[in-house]
Amino acid sequence: MSLTWGQIQTWSSAGLSTYAGTVGARRDTVVKQAEALQARMSSFKGEGATADALRAKMGVAHKELTTLADDLLEIQEAVKVASGDVSQVESAVKLALQQASSTHCTISAAGIATCSSAGNSMSEYTRQSIEFSVNRLVGQAVDLANTADTTLNARLKTVGTPGSTAKSTSTQTHDLSDAEQKKFKNMTPEERARYWSQQSEAQKQHLCDTYPDLIGNADGVEGWARDRANRNRLPKLKQEAEENVSTYTELLKNPWIDDSTRAYYLSELDKAEKAVKAYDIVQKQVKKGISLEDYQHGKEGDPVSLLTLQNDGGRVKAAMGKGDVDHAKNVATFVPGIGTTVEGSMVEYMRQTKNLRRAAMAQGNLALSDVATVAWLGYDAPGEFDLKKHPEDVPGIISPFLAQAGSDRLVGFMNGMQASREYGAGDAHMTLVGHSYGSSTSGMAATKVKYGVIDDLVLFGSPGMGTYDVKNYHVDQNHLWVSGVPKGDSVQGAGAFRGGIVGSLGKNPMDSDSGFSHLSDDATGSPKYNKDAPASKLSNFNFDNHSIYLEDGTETLQDIGRVVAGVKR
What is the pTM of this model? Predict the structure, then answer.
């Protein structure tokens, strides 16, 4: 039976989340009972027919308890997933109601929009267009609700059936066939998160160690596992890059190679040398904290995690976290922009995300464990704007292509984090923080992620918000934030014009009609701030304060920290 608009308006993900916790608590009680019975069975030393019969009955009871525990876990995880799905429905309902309110439409219980605001001044075509737009949003919300309902119903029907156990408690491990590896690669982040949740801890560790290339960049897998896999991969990748340096260095010694071959060798040598530097930087960063897995197992210290490590495309790409991304209540993902490289920028952005984490803690009165940040350098950002030294980088800076490609990667990462949390510690308050060209990349990603993944979107020093209409975002419109210093940041709005190959980075989010709420633009508290820089206009061509926003002493940092902490209103 199909659901109606009137029915889904009453849906609440909070109730499901609470129920999942209740089921989990009851499962914990059953597990303890099973463990107590196992201890009794192990210590029972009776002999004879009566003792054997009692021992057999205890074995049956133990099996029933462990089966019940597995079934309760299956129910808990089904409800957790449903809670996430219902959260998406809530967001879609809210978006439809906002659109209806802003266009003076009413929506009937059957889900039919009627526009009544125009009087005699609105054409019939305009009225129909407005109603069509609202009806489309209503239809999307109802479709999401029907999918959520069908999915939960199907999962609950499998509880208690053969092969339905949610999570194996076995300590045995097994390798994956080629077909299983291929299937894993082709899973969506949500499918992968479910698959991962069904593996025992021993099997998870085995997969990280046996197939680190498969697990390290697998969106939907828990952060600790990606960190473990990428730490396993790092020495080998660095060694391969060093060997490439040696190989191309030797090849270039040949005096008989032609110019085109020499140019190719030089290009590959440059790429290999930069890769070595990038891996060296990453190694030094991971050594500044303990692994996420060690932290979750009780080791003292602050975790640093390596969540992405790739060397496809133009350069090495990486994402590194501070704090426990698997359990923190608030997680912020920072996406930088122009000139970003792992070898040249990761140290700086890990410092800035550390600043952001501390600001969120201070502004939200939160514990260190409540906040985690990610420096996401997971895409090929355009090079520095330098017409004389690097004119080849200019097209990438003023065109949307790198942002579009980067946004697809970012969508997978964000959806994957959300999915892994739904099967793990539960939903987190997730903020996407985009700077410079990274703000355009983030904005584009916000039009593609699943509803409910991004709780707050913050753009600053932005050339364009990735779209020309905030209604395209899958983010609550009351949670869109922008900051732009008034001096020394000519990047603001630079990519807003529509120009085909150039521009088309979206509307300037600083514009009064952009739909964004303005955060503080005061960065004068930092000693790095140039008070004498010209006004932030493209025509003034000055970037002295373009990278000042997350520096200590600035109000811009503190206000963005309030958003990350979830206390900005």
Answer: 0.74
